[in-house]
């Protein structure tokens, strides 16, 4: 039947019926499919199954925190001035009027007090960064302890470690942009770290800073690195991570109907899409509340950076605390010879130590595969108790990081407990060795104990003690309470067509079935 013979709808109801059950949206999708063939690939994507376990939401916290970072960062770039040129402040914040400062610091203070919602956006941006890095760390800990990094997902693990490094670097660079007293001190430490690298350190420091410290180029260069270079790299890593996730499918915990060859959970549309959209709103709401109610990085209290000034009881953001702690407790060792000095007190804790930590992270899938001789594909996750050596190693690493993080407050601890700073330093020098050993051994022993008790960790049924009239005590075990056992739905096969078989009549005896208007049949 030609288009000329198709009767035109005379009423709105007839026009709506002609567009099919999906209306204008269905027509738009059909038009896109005519040009790009999106129906088949879109169906596969919408059919993707997501496990329902709560721990799989940790990665989404990182993803949506990054979304908030991008949104608030765009707002901040409209008002921030990345310049080291000195000006005299005459803004709305009275305590700083008449003080000489860089344009970067002056614009940051004005952004906090003279721009509507500026302080909210600054603090949301800062909190989102802390949550972003924290969510990556916790998400990777879940992957490590459950063995989700094993074959075939080693590449995604490497992408995750690289993403963590880029997030930490970008957080430090962004933290340095206001050019206040605290962030300026952090830049000075970064300059010293670069200088401590043998042979190439002076060249790296000169190229990055454009001359001797502090110079006038570091703030504009940090700005470009923070808003352009590193966000593009992070966005690309996130895209690669999600692409591999879709391609390789999700891992899942062992359970009823779960095998190495299927994924049991909720489909992308509509269940998971509704959940994850609500989760996005929840994360944004929490970050907004933190930005509005919880003060963070009050740069107006610190004042502009002056090379001859320093503050007490100020630590960097938590994700840099472990590095700061390692620098504090390192003995003042150095080597001098042939006219050169290698400052081991800076090189070892700030270059060698982080390099060793992240090298172990990168190489762990290869290390474990070498010792276990396990070359099989794994889609089912381990319980941490079932891999006591891996769990012990992870606990030792966490103990090491937390000890270094605590060491970043040595001056505060010495002052609070009224003891010598040297005593605090020696305590942490010993603890940084002892604590990881204790944590690793304890976790290993707990895993071995749990392996001997299969029901350990599950909720117990109650025992009711009854006393009879004769004074006899008897024990009676109650029935399981709701939630004592996992109740999982049986997996349902995914349909092979976008729609169920349409209701129609044979067309001209050729065996074809008439399809309702607006419905398109696409085989998988």
Structure notes:
This protein has 524 residues and is mainly alpha-helical. Helices cover 57% and strands 5% of the residues. The protein is built from 17 helices and 8 strands. The chain has helices at 12-18, 23-36, 38-46, 58-77, 103-113, 118-146, 154-176, 181-195, 201-209, 218-248, 268-293, 299-302, 318-329, 344-372, 388-407, 410-417, 421-451; strands at residues 49-50, 86-88, 100-102, 266-267, 335-337, 340-342, 463-467, 473-477. The strands form 4 sheets. Strands 1-4 form a two-stranded antiparallel sheet. Helix 6 (118-146) packs across helix 11 (268-293). Residues 497-509 have low confidence and may be disordered.
**Strand-pairing-aware structural class:** mainly alpha
Based on Cα principal axes, name the global outline: globular
Question: Helix share of residues?
Answer: 55-70%
What is the makeup of the main sheet? Answer: 2 strands, antiparallel
The mean pLDDT is: 86
Q: Count of helices?
A: 17
Q: H/E order of the elements?
A: HHHEHEEHHHHHHEHHHEEHHHHEE
- Quantity of strands, as a count: 8
Radius of gyration: 30 Å
Main sheet strand line-up: 1-4
Q: How far apart are the termini? A: 29 Å
Low-confidence stretches: 497-509
Q: Proportion of β residues?
A: under 5%
